[in-house]
């Protein structure tokens, strides 16, 4: 599940949990858990959403971006082969 959130954030730059739920087609509880795991691992950071004081924007940290940059070309190559 974390890989889906990482992939969307890597492509989008930043997103709210609601946007991640829509983009990943995962339920909101699963997205919440995935985001917590990624935050605990230091791969995602949370910042206040200036457009909406109730939500937060999530984005990849430098470590998260490194993983995204390493894994996505491999995932795309595998998808192309299939």
Note down, in words, how this protein is organized.
It is a single chain. The protein is of the alpha+beta class and 82 residues long. It is built from 4 helices and 2 strands, in the order H-H-H-E-E-H. It has helices at residues 2-12, 17-24, 28-40, 62-81; strands at residues 44-48, 56-60. Strands 1-2 form a two-stranded antiparallel ribbon. Strand 1 (44-48) and strand 2 form a beta hairpin. Helix 2 packs across helix 3. The longest helix is centred in the last third of the chain and has 20 residues, at 62-81. The radius of gyration is 13 Å and the shape is globular. The two termini are 21 Å apart. The mean pLDDT is 93.
């Amino acid at each position: 599940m974390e890989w889906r959130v990482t992939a969307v954030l890597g492509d989008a730059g930043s997103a709210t949990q609601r946007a991640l739920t829509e983009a990943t087609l995962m339920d909101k509880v699963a997205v919440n858990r995935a985001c917590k795991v990624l935050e605990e691992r230091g791969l995602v950071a949370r910042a206040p959403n200036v457009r909406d004081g109730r939500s937060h924007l999530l984005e990849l940290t430098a470590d998260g971006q490194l993983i995204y940059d390493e894994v996505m070309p491999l995932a795309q190559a595998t998808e192309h082969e299939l």
